[in-house]
Design goal:
Largest interface: A-B, 26 and 28 residues
Number of strands of chain B: 11
Largest sheet of chain B: 7 strands, mixed
Distance between the termini of chain B: 36 Å
Strand content of chain A: over 45%
Shape of chain B: globular
Strand content of chain B: over 45%
Number of helices of chain A: 0
Oligomer: heterodimer
Shape of chain A: globular
Radius of gyration of chain B: 13 Å
Order of helices and strands of chain A: EEEEEEEEEEE
């Protein structure tokens, strides 16, 4: 069983829709939860991070963490064609100064104009 | 600031050969992590360097080794290449203790092993 599970999609939505992206995990030691966006033929770009449980909002993006269910989500409001990319969830334990980051497989999102 | 830079951008090798990939971190970052990303998969953590020492390692064989220089730049070496080593190799940099908040990735080196 993988430590982090993520539906690979693809997910296709019309412009303006609310997008929900999700990951589940099995390692209870994970404390930090991150979402990255990766455009084709580019490196991943950090969108948001949260520590432990709770919600965090940044513009059109909202990240949610439910540690009791080992489930994290990223919501994108008013989706735009420029949001078309692969979205990767990532997690790490807190281990002092050196942290190994574990990624999901990524969900490919297409926003249709 | 050029961000994280990697070289070369593309590389073709044959089985059994050795390869060296290079990475320059973003200005002000002292920690470098390397990842392997196979097609259709998420990045897999190879190892992390800080103060010229390997600090964390993922589930990769000893054929994968690295080095960090005093200017924080880093190299990834892969010996005895296998077909399965074909992937995008990503370098990421961050300040120590801030990897979750400020990890920046380079564009990657695409390695093809024939």
């Amino acid at each position: 069983q993988k430590e982090v599970e993520q539906d690979p999609g693809p997910l296709s939505v019309p412009e303006g829709a609310i997008v929900s992206l999700n990951c589940t995990y099995s390692n209870s030691a994970f404390q930090y939860f991150m979402w990255y966006r990766q455009y084709s033929r580019k490196g991943p770009e950090l969108l948001m991070y949260t520590y432990s449980s709770g919600n965090k909002e940044d513009g059109r993006f909202t990240a949610q963490v439910d540690k009791s269910s080992k489930y994290i989500s990223l919501f994108i409001r008013d989706s735009q064609p420029s949001d078309s990319a692969t979205y990767l969830c990532a997690m790490s334990p807190y281990s002092g100064g050196y942290q190994k980051v574990t990624f999901g497989t990524g969900t490919k999102l297409q926003v249709i104009p | 600031d050029a961000g994280v830079t990697q070289s070369p951008t593309h590389l073709i090798k044959t089985r059994g050969q050795q390869v060296t990939l290079r990475c320059s971190p973003k200005s002000g970052h002292d920690t470098v992590s390397w990842y392997q990303q196979a097609l259709g998969q998420g990045p897999q953590f190879i190892f992390q360097y800080y103060e010229e020492e390997e600090r964390q390692r993922g589930n990769f064989p000893d054929r994968f080794s690295g080095h960090q220089f005093p200017n924080y730049s880093s190299e990834l070496n892969v010996n005895a290449l296998l077909l399965g080593d074909s992937a995008l190799y990503l370098c990421a940099s961050s300040p120590r203790d801030k990897i979750q908040e400020t990890q920046y990735f380079g564009p990657g080196t695409r390695l093809l092993v024939l």
